Amino acid sequence: MKIHAFRVPRARLLIVALCFLAATGRTDAHHLSEFRSPSRSQATPEGVFLVFPFENVGAPPGLDWIGEGLEELTIQRLSATGQQVYTHAGRLNEMDLYGIPPSGKITRATMLHIAEELDADYIVFGEYSSDGTSLTVRARILRTSPVNLFPVATETGPLTSLMELHMKVVWRLLTEADSSYPLSLNEFSKLQRPISPAAFEQYVRGLLSNDDETRLRDLKEANRLQPDAPEPAFAIGQVYFHKNDCAAALPWLAKVPATHTLGAEAIFAMGVCRLRLGQPDKAQELFAELREDMQHNLVSGADLPEILNNLGISQARQDNFASARTAIGRASDIDPDEDDYPFNLGLLALQQKDVATAETNFAESAQRRPDNALNRAFLLYTLEKAGKKDELRAAREMAQEEFSEKGLPLLNFDAKRPDSLVKYQRVKPELETTSLRLELQGPVQTASTPAVTVPSDGATAHLRQGRQQLRAGRLDAAEREFHAALVSDPHSAAAHRELAEIDRRRGKLDDAVKELHLSLAELDSAATRTALARIYLDQKKPDLARAELEKAIKLAPNYTEARELLGRLDKKATGGAS
Description:
By secondary structure, this protein is of the alpha/beta class. It is built from 24 helices and seven strands.
């Protein structure tokens, strides 16, 4: 999924509302029912954690890995006791959008801004020092709304006691954040999966490696030292997955329990692999059960377009076109800016020799992303087949203006063989979990996994509820929540940006611009500036749009959405297109 205006930025941010159970092996969709979470508490509001790396304030350079390691350990141990935690990858993505380097000291103000963007209720941060034999860890929790800094938790011990020392720190953090937290240290420890210190070090070093060969070596060593640990297995599977070696990826991904925080991503990747290996029936089983479990047991409204799209493709490859149209059509409705979904619908219509419907869908995909040459090529093809000479002439002239250098790609398929169109289908390779939001009713709780609670009327809670209402298309309800968030926190950049999205959907572009400027006054971000640029383009103000995009790229040089949009502007400027 591309990053579009007014969206929470893309990230693999799987927030799971379930307990972290001991690792158990499985293959494909077997035991997918394990993905179901325990019953929810209807009375307790949720508390979402965002963890940052611990800062090295006095340890040898050879122990730098401990900073990221303590972050990962904290995520795992909070998850193990029923807390809801953002992943390491989600934090990195958000920092990248603001041009913040992944290493280095991060101010508390920056932490708060990032937490606001991710709807986090609590921030965990800390530091560590060591003389090579002993280790001291200090950690704190910062509540986001209302802002409150809880007392520091400090533990010192032998360097070899890292796991036990960290266990005490996390338990103390939870008791500081919630004075009624009922678990003793011993009870808290019993909920944790045993972690081999040597395996964990190899795992973290593998994550930090810059090349696949070193990463695989370290991760496989971590797996050898602790074969039942899901995290190294998932990481190894991901390396092979991104190398398109599905035969190697599948056995590793299958080692991740469905109940694990990485379970949904592992299952999704396995489904993609099954499609790549030409096994649509197995892919359909994975995507269908993943969708069902997420819908009914994980989050409200968790009908993710990537799952629907891939489910539809797996159905289409088995000639179940009616179900495929329903699934991909639903994906297109959920994500009205993504061009892949109407494009896939156009392919389905062509496979069924419905040229008129195909033309409508390809026109929609070209409108959503006019710089995609394949969208235009299929649109021209269907216009020609439909005999619309005047529209074909106009569309061809516009395409020649915009794609004069490279031209449009030649389409290579046999209209008499519907299966020859399969190679053009757009399978979503990764699960977009940014839109996975937590249930309004609260976190998962069982008798043994109590959750830390937060006030339900803070700015973060209103933002979360507003975004859920917005995704459901209830604009009035969403607007009330975002205004309530501003009452709780008048400096909420996120609330202003979400109000701008509502104005955009209502066609009030001037009001949307005002809200985005108010958002930028509170927090300068590449995502917000790109959103503003899109509004300026809708208002036929390319110069203002260009200025915002250049500022966005200066702020976050790796922000793909801004670079793509600026490239389109440059292409139009040089090609003379209107």
